[in-house]
Amino acid sequence: MLIPFKLVIGSQDIYNLKRSIMINHEHNILCPYCGETISIVLDISVDEQEYIEDCCVCCQPILIHYRFQLGKITNIEIRAEGEI
Ligand SMILES: [Zn+2]
Fold first, then answer.
1. Does 49 map to a domain?
2. How would you list the strands of the sheet with 48-54, edge to edge?
3. In a domain? residue 1
4. What is the whole-number distance in angstroms between the Cα of residue 13 and the centre of ligand 1?
5. How far is the CA of 22 from the centre of ligand 1 (A)?
6. Is residue 38 part of a domain?
7. Domains contained in the chain, number
8. pLDDT, position 84
9. Ligand 1 centroid vs 79 CA: distance in angstroms?
10. pLDDT value at position 34?
């Protein structure tokens, strides 16, 4: 007896893949410490976010604050942590 076999190639996986491409936005910034260009990946599933990322060149903590609206980054601030 043949058992009906339905092959489900994870449509959920494809959905997640598309989603992860859409919500991750790569951006180049200049490190406020060493001046090197570094690439960061912004999570644009949120409208606004502030976080600290260590520079991949000099390992200093960089404060990154950005706003994301209507499909693009509208404002991005890069500061050395501790500066006001
Ligand atoms: Zn640096």
1. yes
2. 48-54, 61-69, 72-80
3. no
4. 36
5. 27
6. yes
7. 1
8. 57
9. 11
10. 97
Q: Which of 38, 70, 17 is nearest to 9 (CA)?
A: 17
Distance 56 CA to ligand 1 centre (A): 7
pLDDT digits (tens, 9 = 90+) for 52-84: 999 999 999 999 999 988 877 889 999 998 765
CA of 62 to the centre of ligand 1 (A): 8
Q: How far is the CA of 72 from the centre of ligand 1 (A)?
A: 25
How many of the other CB atoms lie within 10 Å of CB of 62? 21
Question: Smallest Cα–Cα separation from 73: which of 21, 24, 36?
Answer: 24
Give the three-state DSSP class for 21.
helix
In a domain, 16, yes or no: no
> Residue 56 belongs to what domain range?
26-80
Q: How far is the CA of 50 from the centre of ligand 1 (A)?
A: 18
